[in-house]
Write a structure and sequence with these properties.
Largest interface: A-B, 12 and 9 residues
Strand content of chain A: 5-15%
Strand content of chain B: under 5%
Oligomer: heterodimer
Number of helices of chain B: 7
Structural class of chain B: mainly alpha
Number of helices of chain A: 5
Order of helices and strands of chain B: HHHHHHH
Largest sheet of chain B: none
Shape of chain B: flat
Helix content of chain B: over 70%
Strand order of the largest sheet of chain A: 1-2
Largest sheet of chain A: 2 strands, antiparallel
Order of helices and strands of chain A: EHHHHHE
Number of strands of chain B: 0
C-alpha cells in the first residue's frame, strides 16, 4: 500500500521522531510505514488520519493488483 | 511491574532481573558442584534462580505491552524463527545421538538452551532488516 505520510509530514516540517511522538510509536515504525515496508493497523491508520485531519483514503492508497 | 517498582522502567527491570538471574544461576551451579551440602539444601539452591527469572518474565511481559505494533510483530517473527530452529537443533541432536554418542559435557540441555536466545537475537536482526 502506498501512502502520503512523508509528504504530509514534510508539509508540517515534522521529523520522523516528532511524528512518532505524536502517534506514540517508534521512529522505526514511522520509517517502515513511509517506505511502504509496513502497513499500519486500522487503529493506527485512523490515528494518523485524525492527526493530519484527513480521511484514511487521502493518506493511504491501495495498490491495484 | 511498575506498581512494584515505580521508579524503574520495564527495560531497566529486565536488565537488572536478567543479570540477577544469570548471577544466581552461576552461583547455584558453583554451590551445587560442591556436594558437601544436604540434598534438601541443594534442592533449595537449585530452585533459587527461578525467583529472578520470574521477575525477568514479568519485566518482559511489561516491556511487550509498551511496544508499538511493528515492534511486537518483529519480536513475534523473531520468536517464530528462534523456536523452530531450537526445536530443529534438539531434534537433530537427538537423531545424531542415536548414531554417535554425544558427550553430555558438551551437548547436555545445560549447553543447548543457550541456542534459543542466540537464535532469537539472530531472528531479531533478520526481521528488523526487513522493515528498515
Amino acid at each position: 500500500m502506498k501512502n502520503r505520510l512523508k509528504v504530509l509530514r514534510a508539509e508540517r516540517d515534522w521529523s520522523q521522531a516528532d511524528l512518532a511522538d505524536k502517534l506514540n510509536v517508534s521512529r522505526q515504525t514511522i520509517n517502515a510505514i513511509e517506505t511502504g515496508k509496513y502497513d499500519p493497523s486500522l487503529p493506527l491508520a485512523f490515528k494518523i488520519a485524525e492527526l493530519f485531519a484527513k480521511k484514511i483514503e487521502e493518506i493511504f492508497i491501495p495498490e491495484k493488483e | 511491574m511498575n506498581k512494584i517498582l515505580p521508579l524503574l522502567s520495564s527495560k531497566w527491570m529486565g536488565i537488572i532481573s536478567v543479570s540477577t538471574w544469570i548471577l544466581a544461576y552461576f552461583i547455584a551451579r558453583g554451590i551445587l558442584e560442591n556436594d558437601q551440602l544436604s540434598d534438601g539444601l541443594r534442592l533449595v539452591v537449585a530452585l533459587v534462580p527461578i525467583i529472578p527469572f520470574a521477575l525477568f518474565l514479568m519485566s518482559v511481559l511489561a516491556g511487550i505491552r509498551e511496544l508499538d505494533e511493528l515492534q511486537r510483530r518483529v519480536h513475534l517473527e523473531a520468536l517464530a524463527i528462534a523456536f523452530p530452529l531450537t526445536m530443529l537443533l534438539l531434534m537433530s541432536l537427538g537423531l545424531v545421538e542415536l548414531v554417535i554418542p554425544l558427550s553430555p559435557d558438551d551437548w547436555s540441555y545445560r549447553h543447548v538452551w543457550q541456542f534459543l536466545p542466540l537464535f532469537y537475537f539472530l531472528g531479531l536482526a533478520f526481521t528488523w532488516r526487513r522493515y528498515q
